[in-house]
Amino acid sequence: MLAGISLDVARGEFVAVMGESGMGKSTLLNLIAGLDRPDSGAVIVDGIELGLLADDDLTTLRRQRMGFVFQAFHVLPYLSVARNVALPLALIGTPAAEADARVVAMLDAVGLAARGASMPRELSGGELQRVAIARALVHRPALVLADEPTGNLDADSAAGVMALLRKQLKDRGATGILVTHSHAAAAVADRVVVLAADGLRDVALTPAG
Questions:
Q1: Inter-residue contact 147 to 29 (CB < 8 Å)
Q2: Which of 113, 124, 158, 181 could form a disulfide with 150 if both were Cys (CB 3.0 to 4.6 A apart)?
Q3: Which long-range contacts does 62-65 make (Cβ < 8 Å, 24+ apart)?
Q4: pLDDT tens, position by position, 145-160
Q5: CATH 3.40.50.10860: does it fit domain 14-203?
Q6: pTM (global) more than 0.70
Q7: Angstrom distance (rounded) from CA 200 to CA 2
């Protein structure tokens, strides 16, 4: 259970949330995403108080203003790389020509320009997470939420993915909130906070290496 939590994240800031298992990091991310509703207090995203929205309006807000990157990639195995990246655009009704152009541009931005027609089974773990980042950003969300995005990757792939995620967030002016156990991943963020039994606190973290 989370109680007494206060977190302000500036527009365009990239914040990492660390903490021991069971402290509620994933719950915090779910609250920010509007997947869970707080019993008290308020969650405000891009000027909108989520608790005041009906479920359908929350779904629309998530589709339009949020992007998600997960530990398990959640890339659909039966769709090509390009079609996976295009999914958020389809959900918000982006015209086909514009969607195609955005997908091509995003795949180029994440270093997968030649892999659009590939199937997920043909990609490495690091490449799959690049697909997930492209999908999270293709619709130009204001906020990107990343839950242990390097948890299934080796150290080299993890470093590449985190550098890419930071660059893409900064290039697009998006706000990022990262939940991670990895000090190396957290060190890429602008600011690191630790979630403990007594609440959230800012910490200084020395970059790995």
A1: yes
A2: 158
A3: 62/33, 62/34, 63/88, 63/91, 63/92, 63/139, 64/92, 64/139, 64/141, 65/141, 65/142, 65/143
A4: 999 998 888 899 899 9
A5: no
A6: yes
A7: 10
